[in-house]
């Protein structure tokens, strides 16, 4: 169904270009599109590769474990159902770190591993409070360094990037705190 919608949108657009007498613009657009996509995606892909490597090196060097131990007090408060020595805490910490660095594509597999570990502790098919809390915090996406956005914006206007970081941090801090507070209120009810 979606394929048909996309194909019909493309055909309507191409028909409009041809009827309006802009066939040369359509040809130029078709020729330049792959180059524009490549120029837009290259900085994003390179940034993701760099930070993915950084996370891997940090994990191999034990920095993720140190980060996890530094925020253990927070983990115990947010996820009381998870035992202190469970591997889920490491995955959650690594997921939080990836989100803080603005790497959603790196955070996703870590989040799936964290949910998998939490499901092993869960005796039910219904999501536990810890799983719901994790999903809410993960979805709210606290970001200190929005690397993907910075990579994209760097192509077009690098001067705006420094100003953008503080606004993104404040917005994601508000959404994360709101998610935690609302989750606690709902759990109490």
Report on the architecture of this protein.
By secondary structure, the protein is mainly alpha-helical. It has one domain (41-188). The chain has nine helices and no strands. Helix 7 (129-140) packs antiparallel against helix 9 (161-188). The longest helix has 38 residues, at 23-60. 22% of the residues are buried. The model has no long low-confidence stretch (mean pLDDT 83).
Briefly summarize what is shown.
Helix content is 80%, strand content 0%.
Write the layout of secondary structure elements.
Elements: H1 2-19, H2 23-60, H3 63-70, H4 72-78, H5 88-100, H6 104-121, H7 129-140, H8 147-156, H9 161-188
Helix pairs in contact: 2-8, 3-5, 5-6, 6-7, 7-9
């Amino acid at each position: 169904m979606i394929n048909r919608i996309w194909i019909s949108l493309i055909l309507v657009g191409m028909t409009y270009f041809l009827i309006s007498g802009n066939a040369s613009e359509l040809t130029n657009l078709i020729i330049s599109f792959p180059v524009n996509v490549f120029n837009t995606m290259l900085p994003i892909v390179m940034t993701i590769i760099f930070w993915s490597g950084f996370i891997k090196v940090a994990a191999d060097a034990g920095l993720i474990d140190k980060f996890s131990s530094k925020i253990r007090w927070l983990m115990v408060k947010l996820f009381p159902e998870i035992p202190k020595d469970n591997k889920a805490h490491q995955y959650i910490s690594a997921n939080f770190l990836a989100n803080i660095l603005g790497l959603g594509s790196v955070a996703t597999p870590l989040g799936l591993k964290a949910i998998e570990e939490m499901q092993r502790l869960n005796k039910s098919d219904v999501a536990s409070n810890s799983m719901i809390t994790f999903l809410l915090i993960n979805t709210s996406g606290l970001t200190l360094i929005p690397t993907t956005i910075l990579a994209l914006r760097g192509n077009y206007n690098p001067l705006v990037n420094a100003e953008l970081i503080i606004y993104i941090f404040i917005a994601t801090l508000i959404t994360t705190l709101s998610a935690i507070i609302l989750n606690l209120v709902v759990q109490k009810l």
